[in-house]
User: What shape does this take?
Amino acid sequence: MRRSLGDLIYFILVGTSAGFTMLLLLAPTLVVLIISFTAGITLKFPPPGWSTRWYGELLNSAEIIEPAITSLKVAGLATTAAAILGTAGSLGIARSSHHLARFLDALFMSPMVLPAMAFGLSLLMVFNLVGIRLSIATLVLGHIIVCVPFVIRMVGAALQQLDPQLVNCSLSLGASHWYTFRRITLPLIRRGIVASCFVAFLSSFDNVPVSLFLADARTEVLPIKLWAILEGSLDVRVAAVSGVIVIATLAGLVLAERFGGLNRQIEGH
Amino acid sequence: MAVQRADSAASADARELLPALPLAALFLLSFLLPLLMLIFVSLFRTPQFDAMGVDQYIRFLSDGFNLKVLLDTLALGVEVATLTLVLAYPLGLVYVAAGPLARTLITFLILLPLLTSTVVRTFAWIVILGREGIVNSAMLGLGLFHEPARLLYSWGGLVIALAQIQLPLMALPVINSLLRVNENLLKAAKGLGAGRLRVFLTLILPLTMPGAIAGWLLVFAAAVTAFITQTLVGGGRIILMPLYIYQQAMGVQDWPFSAALSLIFTVAVVGIVTLVGTLSRRFMRGVDAA
Assistant: This one.
């Protein structure tokens, strides 16, 4: 009898706190979507009325649209480069039992552990001392380093599940390394690559610590621009931008789930 | 003969590494070299780069303000990581007990903040905590507050906002290790008469420690470097390491000092992550042996 009372208390405790946590996870995104349709000119919640005026204002805000395009460009380029270099990198690491392989694995993963601000600042110093002017290329270079760990981890996980016998069979039947990669390895790790591209793209699009140092007036990126706006005033246009980002990310999530099985990447099976 | 075979095996191994070569070269030039440069720059005595010495490090240690900024930043990381740990376990327990549909729903809820941009998440907390925000509106409406409370630009607000923003980093590894707990073990414990709470404390918690620690370290590392959230929710009065480094580098243009600050910050963060990781592994080995 006493035990079942204890169980009851346990269920109530766990249930309510889990419910609270779920609310906490959901609330901010909902709040952003709701406030983006406010008719008011402040972030007053609940909104005094409803309108789509802020989305309309967004269309006329070149100072927000241009950084958004730059961000998409940088994220696209950095993701592509990180996916190609990273997939090749994890292939090399996965096949080799050389002691260098473990060192390289740790090296490629380290941007995830090291505070990215130190890396952004150090890259800026190198460019300055060598005399390279900041451009979209230098920004992309910094972002590639940030994106690589996601590719290494997720493609590496996909490679671990790949049966090495399949590759060995193909090679021993006379197929070249390149042909084997294209016809055997690549189709089998495709889901891992797609999922890692999705995450890498988001992490570049969202990156602040590297862009903070490497983006200048000509290569202003969206997160830094939004930060600058919010530092100055609590502009409601940011809510509309946020609304667009949330919807776009959800669409991307559905696509990545379709082609990459993101859910499985997360549960790890 | 045997030696020769070992040699050729080793060279074959090295050849397998070839595809990783371009990435290795890239990392050498644009990751390792810059970090070495950071050390070099931090060893100049003045922003004019005229003489070398460890003055920047002495300057850091001899001013209480610098140490306070560093310790505040690390404390923020510890508080946020611990809060997410407390929030993640109930969620994980419900996830494991739930059916497929509810699991998909919870996965979606966890991914939602992870996938929306940091600025968006931070912006949401500005709306929630602001003077005319949700919390103030609700509290004033209920008559619990008589005037709007200052929640934005406060330490507590910053900790809660960061905990929500980084929660997915904790929830995912915790759920992963909860899924791996052997159900027969739990059934046996229950069959032997252990209550739920006891099963949780003596079985589930120790068995899922690796996931919890992995999550704790991820959240810690993310929270201490969360520049955007720290500056927008914390406001200008709460100065933490990322903002301090940015000010010194871009505002004051004192490169040697900002380089030294970055290195000290990096060493502190990596040091804590390594220390907690090692200690917990040792502790866990002790649990296994017992």
